[in-house]
Amino acid sequence: MNRLLFLLYLIFNIFIGDALFAQELYEIWGTVTDENNQPLQGATVFISGSQKITATGVTGHFAFAELQPGNYLISTRMLGYNSPSIDVTLRNKSLRLLIKLQAKSMILDEVYIRGDKNRERYMSIFSDQFLGKSADMEECFIVNPEIISLTGKEPDLHNLTLKAEADDLIVIENRILGYRIKYLLRAFEYSSKNSITSYDGETTFEEIEGTKEQKRTWEENRLKAYEGSLMHFLRSVYSNTLLEEGFIANQMVKSSNIFDRRAYMIPTPVKLSKFVARLDSSFVSYKFNALNIIYKPKKAARLQKQLPEQVEIDLKILKDKMPNDIGFPPVDPEGKSSQLLLYLNEALIDQRGSVYTGYKTFLIRGYWSKKRLADQLPFEYRPSEVRIQ
């Protein structure tokens, strides 16, 4: 009898616990119309960075259900019209949107850049900078390169400025991670002189059909792409689990020597409680100046166990050994860490790792800055319990 009562008590508590921690889900729905408020059928509507994509019906209606509270970027694409994106925030209720598209003036381009003699070389550079140099071009490639217009200015052999535009959604087949990606390109520019690439746009993901063996490989590759990524870091910030998730973040400082342009870092990891404030159940506010971040799970685990007094002792020993005027080690001499600089007053982050203020909130250098489209995962991605060692 006692055993039966215990089992009933256990089941009851599990049920109540699940009910308490289950999060309310909401819907984003609405209508797409033209300038005259006439519904548009066949418009593509998607949530950027996710696997949620749909097409409007006869009434111009669209809907996305089962959405957690957070920030969402709703993008719309239809041939012959502009492609607006709308930032929305779900907190405690569903949202209805009216998306009005404006017809684009159809002007024939006089420059037939797709037939340019440099196109093959330009496309190779574009693919490297857009998808990532680490991507295997046989496993991750652009399906419809013919829609991309490339314009290059090359005053000399070592000074190329390359710009790109696209007539439609760029389709990328990523057989490394098992996704078909559609990308709405808004801007792309690459400068070989400064080795700087900047691009802007929205993505949507679709899982590729595969065998059990392929899916197992994709799951392993997705986990490798996720661990140590910016998405992983931002989710760790939201949940206040940086060290637990393997991240070590150190505050960056400058030398008082005006001739020393290097950045240094305070050796003791930052305490998130000093930088993060929970706004509500949906967002945290993250305020900092500049951080050096590296993903080292084993070292992070050791730091978790280290007593605060020992950290202070180690810090004093390290400062005494450093030759520079502030006694701190320089940032990332091996180039394996990332530097995150905050452009705005704060970054608002939700549980998916989405930034309400947009990724332009940050200036990213180092390891993360080298990551491109071939390394991206949708917000729906959640790592399995078994981690790759």
Spell out the key features of this protein.
six-stranded antiparallel sheet; hydrolase; five-stranded antiparallel sheet; about 35% strand; about 400 residues; single chain; alpha+beta; globular; protease; Carboxypeptidase-like regulatory domain-containing protein; Immunoglobulin-like; carboxypeptidase; 6 helices
Describe the structure.
Helices cover 21% and strands 33% of the residues. The two termini are 46 Å apart. It is built from six helices and 21 strands. It folds into three domains: 2-100, Immunoglobulins (Immunoglobulin-like), CATH 2.60.40.10; 113-211; 230-370, no CATH class. The longest helix has 20 residues, at 2-21. It is α+β, with helices and mostly antiparallel strands and 389 residues long. A hairpin with a 7-residue loop joins strand 5 and strand 6. It has helices at 2-21, 119-131, 212-226, 230-239, 297-305, 308-321, and strands spanning 26-33, 44-47, 53-55, 61-67, 70-77, 85-90, 95-100, 140-142, 148-156, 159-166, 170-174, 179-191, 196-207, 247-254, 263-265, 276-278, 284-286, 290-295, 338-342, 347-349, 362-366. Strands 8, 9, 10, 11, 12 and 13 form a six-stranded antiparallel sheet that branches. The chain has a five-stranded antiparallel sheet with strand order 15-14-18-19-21. A four-stranded antiparallel sheet has the order 3-2-5-6, with no helix packed on it.
